[in-house]
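Hi F.,

I've been meaning to write this up properly since the lab meeting, where we talked about keeping a consistent format for the predictions we share between groups. The idea is simple: the sequence comes first, exactly as it goes in, then the structure tokens exactly as they come out, then a line or two of notes. No screenshots and no reformatting. I'm using this chain as the first example so we have something concrete to point to.
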Amino acid sequence: MDLSVIVVNFGVADYVRRCVASLLAERPIDARCGPIEIIVVDNFSTAEERQRVRALDGPSVRVLALDDNIGYAGALAAGLERAHGRRLAFLNPDTWVMPGALAAMADVFDRESGVGAVAPITWFDEDRTVMHPPHAMPGIANSTWRMAATRSRVARRCLDRLRLAFRWRYWLAREPIDVPMLTGSCILTSRSVVDLVGPPDPSYPLYFEDADWCRRVRDARLRLVAHPGSHVVHYYSVSTNRHRDEAARRHRVSRERYFRKWAGGAGWAFERWLERVAESNSAACRDQGGFEDLGDRVDTPRIALPGRGAARSLVEIAGEPSFELPAGAVVTSGALEFSTSTWRHLWPADYFVRSIDADSLRVTGRWRFRRADDPRMDEPAR
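Output, unedited:
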């Protein structure tokens, strides 16, 4: 077997079925990948969910039903134990693999030297209008910068500028680029790399397992590469949005585990102090002045962008006004309008949008709106 793809499900059978369908469609066109083995690990979903997932079991798909919810990393490890491929891919259930994505990642893995893992560019929608952001490696240094940004306007502007430059280098890349970490929504690696650095650590119940694994890959002096020639749709946190309280609890446990492992007990204590200081000073960062208010929206707003004569506008969309981890879009028309798929998967909340000059990275416009409740939300895209 050349490639084993492991998909972990918890309560999102409709998305898993779409994900598997996209993988099965890859088989005839991804000759460079060879035979694909698909392993779906069900993390103790409801009886109805299990029945729907088990219906996928067949010659091309193996379903592993666990007797307990052992967390995302634990389910990945369980799938890895049963995988036969020399290449391995970890895939979130709320993803849809675009044609040729796996082959493109496999090609980079084989062609470039010193690669430990490859990830695609991930999108919110099938029309590829809004991209997910790259992630910085969690650590004391990043937390210190975030705390400083809550205390100093100069530090806040400096950090924002650094983040902007990092994100737009990633979003506008045309060739594979090295990145500090890969997010766990879609990662392609090899059996030899997993044998060298180990599988994702099952002691992380949810979140931070990807950062931990990427740290181990980098410690082995291997590269983490994002490939703009590979595209995957990631509808983002569909399962966790349905179980928010439990996801938040597991996030806290995983965060402590991560900082204790990589920074020690003293580092974890310092991280908690940084968080408390940042929270006590965060009112300034939450200042929502300067945004044009577009009000509550059931249907997508159409945002006219400054500089209509420009060839393109760079746009960021975030759930907080500091734009710490925004999605991005390159808009070649004079306005931003979300695709139906992207809009359907925006959770009811306040959202902030800003346009940026591509050359100077200067902010040219800012807007805010609230995504209102809508019965059409959170349905699997057709």
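Notes:
The radius of gyration is 21 Å.
The mean pLDDT is 88.

If this format works for you, I'll send the rest the same way.

G.
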